[in-house]
Amino acid sequence: MKIVVIGAGYVGITLSCLTEFGHEVTMLGRDKEKAARIARGVSPIYEPGLEEVLRAGIKKGLLKSTTDYSVVKDADVIFICVGTPSRDDGSIDLSQVETCSKSIGEQMRESGGYKVVVVKSTCLPGTTTDVVIPTVEKASGKKAGEDFGACMNPEFLREGSGVYDFMNPDKIVIGGIDSASQKVLSDLYSGFDQKFPRIFTDTNTAEMIKYGNNAMLATRISFMNELANICEHYHADVKEVSRAMGIDSRIGPKFLNAGAGFGGSCFPKDVKALISAAKKAGVKPSLLEEVMKINDSQPERMVDLAEKTIGDLTDKKVSILGLAFKSDTDDMRDSRSTVVIQSLLRKHAKVRAYDPKAMENARGMFDNMVTFCASKEECVKDADLVMVMTEWDEFKNMELSSINAPIIDGRRIIDPEKVAQRGLVYRGIGWKDNFRGGRP
Ligand SMILES: NC(=O)c1ccc[n+]([C@@H]2O[C@H](COP(=O)([O-])OP(=O)(O)OC[C@H]3O[C@@H](n4cnc5c(N)ncnc54)[C@H](O)[C@@H]3O)[C@@H](O)[C@H]2O)c1
Q1: Domain 213-427 has what CATH class?
Q2: What residue ranges do the domains of the chain occupy?
Q3: Which of 41, 136, 161, 331 could share a disulfide with 55, CB 3.0–4.6 Å?
């Protein structure tokens, strides 16, 4: 099939994986330089395995990259993968979706053949039917369900393992306005192993499935953070609690990590959008509001712990290990490290930072108030306090000999035995201090 992907960001660029199934994929972005780099096989983001996919697609002649919307004329399927950021009040900003829907429609006005417009961006229920379709219809003069099809096909990949997740999805959700649209998308995914469940539904339900997914995962994290705060008071260890809870087959082990809270481009914005949509619908989103409140307070709890550990932070050298919102990505959007660093700067700490991949994205965010280091060793040298903010393997396995300061670990990734051998203070939210765990 001939596929056009609009928006070559984290999600859009990962759709280059469709070339592995023989589809012709054209990335359609706004930035000419970025488009030229993609055409040479250079990924605009850091994502393990992605450049190999890009280069293989280019070699087979299946992957192209452009900023010229006329490629829509020849497409069978057009994926909308543009951003759906939060407005200041938390509601969803659909301007990118509207702009590209209009551009799709304008190209469709001048072309024939049945095409399916697929929304992959995370959008609230009703967006495909009430925003995308009317905009495409108006610009094209064509009718959805007759001249063109429309689907909502939410994406569940995790940054850092995007290629793997895209190729091995837990589920493929195909929300369509009719069975003809669903059939095209189903054919497009026919090369994927049949063991991955396909869920055929309407577009509103498909849109809500994505919000349900993200809101549930965010809720689990905030739940564990609340439990961690209670654990601290009763000298219980939240890590052991979550490990034991996760063994229960009714609960499962994922997304039960207490710590600095969730960040990234999806959870905070999607929970806020759902809260705003609920209110608009007259539903009181009490639980979701608490999920956000707890999450917003976690970075401050990290800074409280820092003060409890080394006292007044004025002029103290605090080393931040990890800036990306999670490991294996360079994405800094809504990263908890940003909030922690801002708070440390307000308290006049001298902040140094290191991240294996996110340094470029982080530079410029702090008005030269943060010293960016070339390595973790340089970052922790002579520190008064070390704070681990991202669960990079590089930090998990790091040699501790260069650290002579207490460590506050927002991700609980360092082996407590190794820290104990060095005689260092090792603390985190909801832990027993210097907890070693294991059998007696
Ligand atoms: N990042 C994730 O892990 C993830 C996972 C699942 C779903 N999503 C959802 O997918 C959507 C995209 O997320 P992302 O992280 O890839 O965003 P992103 O900001 O990385 O990428 C969006 C891209 O769209 C481009 N764009 C915007 N308007 C355009 C237009 N009119 N024409 C061409 N290009 C245009 C932007 O330049 C940008 O490159 C969002 O709705 C997000 O919630 C993201």
Answers
A1: alpha beta
A2: 2-201, 213-427
A3: 41
From CA 326, how far away is CA 311, in angstroms rounded?
A: 28
The pLDDT of 139-155, averaged and rounded, is 98
Q: Which residues pair with 65 in a beta bridge?
A: 27
Q: Of these residues, 100, 151, 231, 266, which one is catalytic?
A: 266
Q: What is the pLDDT of residue 364?
A: 79
CA-nearest residue for atom 1, ligand 1, is: 10
Tell me, in angstroms, the distance from the centre of ligand 1 to residue 12's CA: 7
Neighbouring C-alpha atoms within 13 Å toward the C-beta of 60: 17
Identify the residues whose C-beta falls under 6 Å from ligand 1: 6-12, 28-30, 81-84, 96, 99-100, 121-122, 155, 157, 159, 265-266
Per-residue pLDDT tens digits for 121-138: 999 999 999 999 999 999
Order of all β-strands in the sheet with 370-372 = 370-372, 350-354, 317-321, 385-388, 407-409, 426-427
Confidence (pLDDT) at 298: 95
Percentage above 70 pLDDT, the chain: 98
User: CA 13 to CA 15: how far, in whole Å?
Assistant: 5
87: which DSSP letter? Answer: P
Same fold, 2-201 and 213-427: yes
CA angle 285, 261, 306 (to 5 degrees): 135
Nearest CA owner, ligand 1 atom 14: 10
CA distance 56 to 61: 9
pLDDT of residue 341: 97
Nearest CA among 83, 81, 72 for reference residue 26: 72
pTM for the full predicted model? 0.93
Which helix or strand (DSSP H or E) is residue 133 part of? Answer: helix 133-140
Ligand 1 centre to CA of 412 (Å) is 31
Rounded to whole angstroms, how far apart are CA atoms 42 and 60? 16
Contact 27, 5 (CB under 8 A): yes
Q: Does 373 participate in catalysis according to the annotation?
A: no
Compute, in angstroms, the gap from residue 122 CA to the centroid of ligand 1.
9
CATH architecture of the domain with range 2-201: 3-Layer(aba) Sandwich (3.40)
